[in-house]
Amino acid sequence: MKISVIGLGYLGATHAVAMAKLGHQVIGIDNDQAKVASLSRGKVPFFEPGLSQALAEVLADGSITFQQEHNQHSASAELHFLCVGTPQQPDGSANTDYLFAAIRDLAPQLSAESLVVGKSTVPVGTASRLRGELAGKAEFEPKLVWNPEFLREGTALEDSLTPDRIVIGAGNRSDAEKLLQAYKPILDRGTPLVEVDVQTAELVKVAANAFLATKVSFINAMAEIAEASGADAVALADAIGYDERIGNKYLRTGIGFGGGCLPKDIRGFVARANELGVGSSLDFLVEVDKVNQRRRQRVVELAKLELGDLAGKRIAILGIAFKPDSDDLRDSPALEIARMLSAAGAKVTVTDPEALAGVGDEALTTEPDVMAALSGAELVILGTEWRQYRDLDPAAAAEQVATKTVIDGRNVLDVSSWQQAGWCVIALGRNIDNG
Ligand SMILES: NC(=O)c1ccc[n+]([C@@H]2O[C@H](COP(=O)([O-])OP(=O)(O)OC[C@H]3O[C@@H](n4cnc5c(N)ncnc54)[C@H](O)[C@@H]3O)[C@@H](O)[C@H]2O)c1
Asked: Whole-model pTM?
């Protein structure tokens, strides 16, 4: 099928490549000329494992092209996927302006046969407003369905090609036919298909993210209790996680969630619930957000407990991306901690295998080499659980630093081997005996 993908960020670029890998003819459209040029050259403008290789393959076989604006070529696509950003506004609500701008550009290109598929994460009711926008522009009834995306950065391509479910929200079944056809190779493998109304499809995504955020903040709230009572939140998570109704995934205590989705999605959800007059239904998400923010502050408190006045103190932060296998710095807990420490006067050096180029903060020193980053540090903080930091040799690291104290912000270090190498290990939600 001929498909256009509008918006080529983390979601759209991955979706475009995935659709081409499924055998479709894909036209990627983004109003950012630099992004279009980069993708056309085979260079993915962000780090995502496996995506560059897959892009090279689909460029080579001619199944994908990129352009800045719609033209006759893109107008003849049967499906148009909307993948533009919906960032947070200052009041917490989601900014849907990019979607409306995209739909205004797209409207003159549509025919009675085209299907518009929303994939961006939106406040419930957005699809109906977009339909209204389209209705005013066309002589026919434009078809628009919602198909939320659940890919996770770090495993985005794999998640797109082998999703755990496909959710489609359509006014009527016939509207979704073309989308089902596009996903046929995935659906033929037995991937569950959940067909719902449009509002439910919009809600599924924010509800899923609200649940995940709640799970993380639940265990981090337990960490706060553990810190106050001398218990161990890692052991607690392990013990409760065996109950399959609870499950052990997303139950690791640490500096909390971040990124371009979870934080903005729960805030947008709260804002939308308030608009709908049911704000109290999501009051708990306000607390979920607060617990998450408090974990970042807790690291700064722990640093002060260790170092006293932070002015001039040298702190190394291992990992600055919001999660491993990504260079995404949006609402990154590690980056915010780095900035808070720096604002308190510390000399902060950050290292990360992929995300340093995006830091752009003059107050922070960026150092790609981990051993050089550790050099002379009076405190080390593990901010992002990249494999290379989890596997770091504590003896080699010990030789670099001025003081062998590490705060494990993700609870991934092997405490006993770090202690054996002479380190004092501090971890969130734990009271570790450092002898
Ligand atoms: N990043 C993820 O892991 C992920 C996962 C699932 C859903 N989502 C959702 O997908 C949406 C996009 O997220 P993202 O992380 O890819 O954002 P992003 O900021 O990385 O990408 C958005 C892209 O849209 C482009 N754009 C904006 N307006 C445009 C227009 N009018 N025409 C063409 N292009 C336009 C921008 O230039 C940018 O490249 C959001 O709603 C997000 O919540 C993201």
From this structure: 0.96
